[in-house]
């Protein structure tokens, strides 16, 4: 196989892995984001009545 073809294949494979990892991480964070924001905001909320 040609060296440049192998190099292009490696670059494409890395791009696919990078994109897949970003998608997977986004899906995981999306499910927990609302809870994490609520937990972060809880100490700053006071009862002003």
Notes on the structure:
With 49 residues, the chain is mostly helical. The termini are far apart. 80% of the residues lie in helices and 0% in strands.
Provide a concise account of the structure shown:
By secondary structure, this protein is mainly alpha-helical. Helices cover 80% and strands 0% of the residues. The longest helix has 39 residues, at 3-41.
Q: Topology of this protein?
A:
Layout: H1 3-41
InterPro entries: DUF945
Organism: Escherichia coli
Protein name: Putative GTP-binding protein
Ends distance:
75 Å
Largest sheet: none
H-E string: H
Number of DSSP strand runs? 0
Strand content: under 5%
Q: Radius of gyration, Cα only, in angstroms? A: 21 Å
What's the rounded overall pLDDT mean? 91
The dominant shape is: rod-shaped
Residues in helices, as a percent range: over 70%
Notable traits:
49 residues; mainly alpha
């Amino acid at each position: 196989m040609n060296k440049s073809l192998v190099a292009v294949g490696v670059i494409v494979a890395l791009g696919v892995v990078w994109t897949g990892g970003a998608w997977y991480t986004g899906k995981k964070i999306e499910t927990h984001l609302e809870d994490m924001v609520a937990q972060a905001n809880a100490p700053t909320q006071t009862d002003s009545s």
